[in-house]
Specification:
The protein has nine helices and ten strands. By secondary structure, the protein is an alpha/beta fold. An eight-stranded parallel beta sheet has the order 9-8-5-1-4-2-3-10, sandwiched between helices.
Length: about 270
């Protein structure tokens, strides 16, 4: 009997942090390693994750190629019960279920975030984004209080820890991923480093480096290709080794439980 799939939730109540891009690339990176991956988009309005994987499937059809991918769906319902049924359906065939959530406060995003095995919160390197998880003093830049979102995850992790032994599930691993979209002034960077380190000790998240070459990822969106699809990228294939290494480093830092090695599987859409 297959064990329950590992749930990876990409969640941030603020948009523009590279959440969907990071989710897609982690999904494809896992597929390249032979994992069976399911991806659920919880933003039926923007559906960025779903559209990216649709574009990937279309590129494979158009070019007559087979690439590692994920079984994917967008959830357009309104109830957590309906979402749980979809998770059970896709999860029965997957090692990992990846969730991309809206960049706003959303009850379904909270539902999957509090049940995550790995919760990934991408942040840009700015105090505007830091405010999502904590507030700092204007003079000292010391953390004054947790944000509502951080308190929500803190409570969810405490409940999860109590049920870990009973349900034989891993404790929730909360990873804050720093996606750098532009040069950050050195003094401000030090302040961010200090504030993130202080807050991580208080609420128990880990800090990981994310993706910086955001223009590249936007260029890849129409084809659904990723930096790992060497041999299919044309001119992009030789010029972005650093960005490709960033992705590999990010995946390693997530410390995910990899299944036994098997051949990568192509993407497939699921009608919901």
């Amino acid at each position: 009997m297959q064990s329950a799939p590992h749930r990876i939730v990409f969640a941030n109540e603020k948009g523009g942090t590279g959440k969907s891009t990071t989710a897609v690339h982690v999904a494809i990176a896992l597929a390249y390693q032979g994992a069976r991956v399911a991806a659920i988009d919880l933003d039926p309005r923007q559906r960025t994750l779903h559209r990216y994987l649709e574009n990937r499937a279309e590129t494979m059809r158009r070019r007559g190629i087979v690439l590692p991918g994920a079984e994917f769906a967008v959830y357009e319902g309104e109830t957590s019960e309906g979402l749980d049924r979809l998770i059970d359906e896709l999860g029965a065939r997957a090692d990992f279920v990846i969730f991309d959530t809206p960049g706003r406060d959303d009850p379904l995003a909270r539902h999957v975030a509090t049940a995550a095995d790995t919760l990934v919160t991408p942040l840009n390197d700015s105090f505007v984004d830091f405010d999502l998880i904590g507030q700092v003093d204007a003079e000292s830049f010391k953390v004054r209080r947790l944000s509502f979102y951080a308190e929500l995850i803190w409570e969810a992790r405490k409940k999860r820890a109590m049920a870990t032994i009973r349900d034989q599930r891993r404790e929730m691993d909360w990873v804050v991923v720093r996606n750098r979209t532009q040069h950050t002034e050195a003094r401000n960077m030090r302040r961010l480093d200090s504030a993130l380190t202080e807050l991580s000790k208080r609420v128990g998240f880990r800090i990981a480096s994310g993706l910086s070459e955001r223009v590249i990822y936007r260029e890849l969106f129409p084809s659904g290709l990723t930096l790992l699809d060497k041999g299919h990228l044309g001119e992009l294939g030789t010029s972005h080794l650093v960005a490709r290494q960033e992705l590999r480093t990010l995946l390693a830092s997530l410390n995910l439980p990899m299944p036994a090695v098997r051949s990568p599987e192509p993407a497939a859409a699921v009608q919901v």
